[in-house]
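Input chain follows. Return structure tokens only.
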Amino acid sequence: MGFFNLGKKDQYGNQARIEHRGKHLRVGRTGGVSLRAQAKAAGMNVTANSKHGLRVSGRVAKGTQMAMQNGRFVLRGRYGSGPTKLNMSKSGFTVSSRNELGTFNWVKPNRSSAKVFGVQMRGRKAANAQMAFMFLSLVAVAASVAFRLVVFLLVWAWRLLVMGWQLLMLIPYGWEQLKRIITSWRIQRMRNQLPGDLLDTLGSWDATRLVAALALATHGWGRGQLLSKARDELQAQLTSQDAELLILATRNQLAQVEKALDSVNACVDDKKQPLAQLAIVAELGTLFRRSHHQIPPAELLLQLDELLVRLGPKTQYQEQMLTVLADAFGLRLVESGATALEGA
């Protein structure tokens, strides 16, 4: 079966042209049977064919050939290195492209060729086959490109959806952080408006008085109570409970810091009192942080939070005070299985 190239594949993996082409014998479907002999003389190729007669040909330039066949002048040229080439003949120039099916001539389609299952076709049938093949190839390529584009768009749509969802989930956190930044800025402005002698008094306190002032401010101001009432409740709580704050916030310290804290409300307008109180809490926290006391700021913050819970349900204002105090301590909340404090 190999005599007619059956089973032989071409460069595209398709069945090669069904024919026999030997040294002197050629057998094909359209050309029939013919004998052929070739020789060289004076630099020219001389070919004798039992069907096509005598031909004398020679190469005049790269890709260009001239020949005389049975007295008829033949000029052929093919130029280009890719699948598309420029063809030259006596009638002019044409452009053709090579593909898996054969060759399609873009200028003169009837000069196209096509090979289907090893059967060679030329002329209009080949042109029709080529156009049908290129149309189907174009459809396949367009479908592949469309599929890839849809997959690409779906992937990026999913990524954008995930990013959008993540950003949406970050909005509450971002809003809280923005509010904390604005509050810190307002607190700093209010601190600059407080009397200098009050700030000097706070700056002269040791860590014991600073903790007592923080306990009194967060409990009394945080619940909107008079500091005298808050002092009595704190003294009772610290006496009845075995808390570590008892070491710092003694009865005498609470009474001594009460007077300084009471002067805050007298030096500002009623509308500005909450902001001034937050500024005092932030100042006390900053001073305690700089004191380098043996109790870490994070532990003190947790002890204050526990103390406020023992004295009753925490108010929203107390939560804000603890947040301001955490900022003054340079702490932030982190999630690691359970809520914890971390130094900023």
